[in-house]
Design a protein that fits this description.
- By secondary structure, the protein is mainly α.
- It has 28 helices and no strands.
- Helix 8 packs across helix 9 and helix 16 runs parallel beside helix 21.
């Protein structure tokens, strides 16, 4: 009797990756840390409300506490999903490409569908375990009341749709990327571009909606641009539900209606991206593996660095390699990311010139104030991207040599390990050249329009240089042969040290029943602002009028200025400490010994030739 054979969709790759991922320790540690965080926030919230007496007033007060904590979890978990889904799924194909084993997988009788969907499903199921960590917390909140089961089910359904669409998009980027990190950053770049389109559309709509003669155009933008973009935004979907409830709509019906729109958006994105990845995985890899030599020869003639590249003998060989060769060929994903960043940063400038120079609306003086706000926000964002890029290149120096199979050849050269270390450290500082150009354009526009007082530019450069050296040294300390581990440690430590620890403190202090914001009246808080690089980079750009107002005020910001100066010096000293710590770790990693003059004389006394390694 013939048996019915169902078509294979996932294949054996799914079961292999599912078992292999379940045995990795870092996923267990991540789930444990997330559960401890949620439990700590729940206990802190209940304790703060209990101490203040709010939780002992009535059952409605407990329900309000439960509802408040629910929205805190929603924000934390959605943010974690947007950050972790690309990190989980980028390595599905990236690890095979990094290990140069994807070619062997493609030579088997496995189809593209089994390879891509099998690896994708294994990663998604592992990520769903992270999502389910919050389920016991929601079950505990049900005891307090105030939460509808429909709302909890809708939240988990929205989380699932978000993971599917974002994971499929990451798999598509992994197909076209040559490395795991490239796919990861490409996905974050696309998310950034999506957010930019939404903000840009909101801005255009607000401008045209302000004038009666352009009301029809504003309505057209709202219907055909903003509504499709906001359909996939989880936070805007929650605001839409809240607005419908305030208008008198039924809560359950409003939630289910918005969930249907949200699901339609993300299902379309997931299906299109997954089908695209399945169709192109084999062809793209064959072109990357066997057709890259001819393309590189052609594109090298048009590469801009070919014009400015000096002769090898004029530079130290390793510094020349790190500056002009180690970055490799620029892919279309890198170019897309650069285009997105440049458009995001420079598009508001055009509207400032159009709006603020219009004689019927504003004057050039208000253009200077607007450009000051622009340089504070956009300039700080570009600096943060550049600092993270510096840390990324520094952390990946060793792993890149291992991936390209050039680490052993580098270690066999007679160059001292200290020169190798300095060349890689210096190369990481020079890596984000396009971001440096963009930062110079932003600051130049600010100085030209009066948004930045020119005497402050050297101080801004000094602060950014101190933070850049710190991030390069931090990346070299975290560098190892494991690329993902090095990048994870560098990015987390970098974000923490760049001032994001203030956000963590604010999340916990928000639940403490004391007037926290009254602390900002004390001078010590103003002094501590200087130890937050993000705030420092946002506070330094000032107009000449703002500086005069500060200097002529009865209470000048003396401690704030002193805190900024001391903070920059402290970060420079920490960069120096990290530089030598990274150098010592690099010597251990390479297995080489630095020969001092005394060691060379002692070694030469035995009539043996000295060695550099």
């Amino acid at each position: 009797m013939a048996t019915l054979r169902l078509p294979r969709v996932l294949g054996p790759v799914f079961y292999f990756d599912l078992v292999r991922l379940a045995r990795r320790r870092r996923y267990f540690v991540l789930r444990t840390a997330y559960s401890v965080l949620l439990a700590s926030l729940l206990m802190l919230l209940f304790f703060s409300d209990y101490v203040s007496g709010r939780a002992r007033q009535s059952a409605q007060a407990l329900a309000d506490v439960s509802e408040q904590f629910f929205y805190v979890i929603v924000f934390i978990q959605m943010t974690a999903i947007f950050c972790l889904t690309p990190a989980y799924t980028a390595g599905a194909l990236g690890e095979e490409k990094d290990g140069q084993t994807l070619e062997y997988v493609l030579t088997t009788d496995l189809t593209n569908k089994e390879i891509v969907l099998g690896k994708f499903a294994a990663r998604i199921l592992n990520l769903l375990l992270f999502v389910l960590v919050s389920l016991p917390v929601f079950a505990a909140l049900q005891l307090l009341g105030g939460l509808s089961p429909v709302l909890i089910l809708a939240f988990f359904a929205a989380t699932l749709f978000t993971i599917l669409s974002l994971g499929s998009l990451t798999m598509l980027c992994a197909v076209y990327a040559t490395r795991t990190v490239t796919a990861l950053w490409s996905t974050y770049g696309l998310l950034f571009f999506y957010g930019f389109l939404w903000l840009f559309g909101r801005w255009i709509w607000a401008y045209f909606d302000a004038y009666p003669e352009t009301k029809n155009l504003a309505d057209w933008i709202s219907i055909y641009v903003l509504v499709p973009l906001e359909a996939g935004n989880p936070f805007m979907s929650m605001m839409t539900v809240a607005q419908e409830v305030l208008r008198g709509a039924d809560f359950a019906q409003a939630v289910m209606r918005q969930l249907g729109i949200y699901a339609l958006f993300h299902v379309i994105v997931a299906v299109v991206a997954a089908m695209w990845a399945v169709a192109r995985v084999r062809a793209v890899y064959l072109r990357q593996r066997y057709g890259i030599a001819a393309k590189r020869t052609t594109s090298a003639r048009l590469h801009p660095w070919k014009i400015w590249r000096p002769a090898l003998g004029h530079w130290h060989p390793l510094i020349w390699k790190e500056l002009f060769f180690a970055r490799g060929k620029t892919t279309w994903l890198h170019r897309l990311f650069n285009v997105v960043v440049f458009l995001t940063a420079l598009t508001p400038v055009a509207f400032f010139f159009v709006l603020f120079l219009h004689p019927q609306h504003w004057e050039p003086q208000e253009l200077a104030e607007a450009m000051n706000r622009y340089t504070r926000i956009c300039g700080t964002g570009v600096q943060l991207l550049a600092l993270l890029a510096i840390g990324y290149w520094a952390a990946s120096t060793v792993a890149n040599e291992k991936t390209r199979l050039t680490w052993d050849s580098l270690m066999l050269t007679p160059l001292p390990a200290s020169e190798i270390y300095f060349a890689k450290w210096f190369g990481s500082l020079a890596a984000p050249k396009s971001l440096y150009i963009l930062l110079a354009i932003v600051w130049g526009l600010g100085v030209a329009t009066g948004g930045i007082w020119p005497p402050l530019v050297p101080l801004m450069l000094a602060a950014f240089a101190a933070y850049a050296i710190f991030m390069a040294s931090l990346g070299m300390v975290c560098a190892s042969t494991q690329l993902l581990r090095s990048l994870t440690l560098t990015i987390l430590a970098g974000l923490f040290s760049l001032g994001f620890y203030w956000c963590l403190c604010a999340c916990f202090l928000a639940f403490i029943p004391i007037p926290i914001f009254d602390l900002f009246d004390h001078d010590i808080v103003g002094f501590l602002l200087g130890f937050n690089p993000t705030l420092v980079m946002g506070l330094l750009p000032c107009t000449e009028k703002q500086m005069r107002d500060v200097l002529s005020s009865p209470k000048p910001l003396g401690l704030v200025s002193a805190g900024i100066l001391v903070g920059v010096i402290v970060y420079a000293l920490l960069a120096l400490v990290l530089y030598f710590s990274g150098k010592a770790r690099f010597l251990v990693l390479t297995g080489r010994v630095e020969w001092t003059a005394a060691k060379r004389r002692a070694f030469a006394a035995h009539s043996l030739p000295p060695s550099n390694a």
